Amino acid sequence: MRIIFVGDVMGAVGMQTLTEYLPRLKAKYHPQITIVNGENADNGRGIKSQQFKAILHAGADIVTLGNHAWDKSEVTDLLQNNDNLLRPANYPGLHTPGKGLVIKQVNQEYLAVINLQGRALMAPIDDPFTKADLLLKQIPAGVKIFIDFHAETTSEKGALAHYLDGRVDAIVGTHTHVQTNDAQILPGGTAFLTDVGMTGSYDGILGVKATASVQRFLTQQPTRYEIDDQGRHQINYCLLDLENKNHIQVGQITPDRPLDD
Ligand SMILES: [Fe+2]
């Protein structure tokens, strides 16, 4: 089973980049399923119906979210009406709208997609390790399992990956917007990447205008982040082949690494 996973789509420039390049990536790699993290799609904060539909139209089958899941109020209806939109499963309590697990048929096989969120240097949320244990008990044997772990620290991402090694097929991080070059198959067979990176501005910092970010570090004053919608753009993704022996490969299209098709 071949999967393309595209990292955090950041604002209108991210949406344009996704629309331009995802169909070309799919034509090149022929994935059976495409997953996109869309938690920053609406101007960097959350997702609305229009972006959700546009991400699906660009070629995604499933959209995952993260700590910005709730920034737009209409996401509640979107989550309740669309099985293929996931929010982190470890939001607390029994009454949080939506869900963080979906099982999708892919040709003759099944894929479970799980969205989890980290706790280190992030807002309080339930334990993603324990939540993963509980979710795995709900998934029938033989179903392949992919996790988007939306987390800040490399250590927490590595810890969850090793904790789940051999029990899931792939765990890929999102949220930090910078692609890491550590794709590996863990000893138990799980494919792991600390962070897949973002989709949007290439000249900004994490997708926002560099000037505001630099000013914050220069002055320690709060500054208002704005999406960098001028200039060059990039898309970051990974390719997964989930077979008896799993395989993972990072990819990016940037001005310095143009698409070779
Ligand atoms: Fe995030």
Structure description:
With 261 residues, this protein is α/β, with parallel strands linked by helices. Helices cover 26% and strands 25% of the residues. The protein has helices at residues 11-29, 49-58, 75-81, 128-138, 154-164, 210-219; strands spanning 2-6, 33-37, 62-64, 85-86, 101-106, 109-117, 144-150, 170-174, 184-185, 191-193, 199-201, 233-241, 247-253. The strands form two sheets. Strands 1, 2, 3, 4, 11, 12 and 13 form a seven-stranded mixed β-sheet that branches. A six-stranded mixed β-sheet has the order 5-6-7-8-10-9, with helices on one face. A hairpin with a 5-residue loop joins strand 12 (233-241) and strand 13. Helix 1 packs parallel to helix 2 (49-58). It starts with a strand and ends in an 8-residue tail after the last strand. The mean pLDDT is 96. The structure holds fe (ii) ion (FE2).
Characteristic key phrases:
6 helices, 261 residues, alpha/beta, 13 strands, six-stranded mixed beta sheet, binds fe (ii) ion
Structural class: alpha/beta
Distance between the termini: 22 Å
Q: Helical element count?
A: 6
Output mean pLDDT: 96
How would a crystallographer describe the biggest sheet?
A: 7 strands, mixed
Q: Which kinds of small molecule does this entry bind, naming each only once? A: fe (ii) ion
Q: Roughly how many Å is the radius of gyration?
A: 17 Å
What portion of residues belong to β-strands? 25-35%
Proportion of residues in helical segments: 25-40%
Give the tally of β-strands.
Answer: 13
- Write down the overall geometry: globular
Element order, helices and strands?
EHEHEHEEEHEHEEEEHEE
Which stretches of 5+ consecutive residues score pLDDT under 50?
none
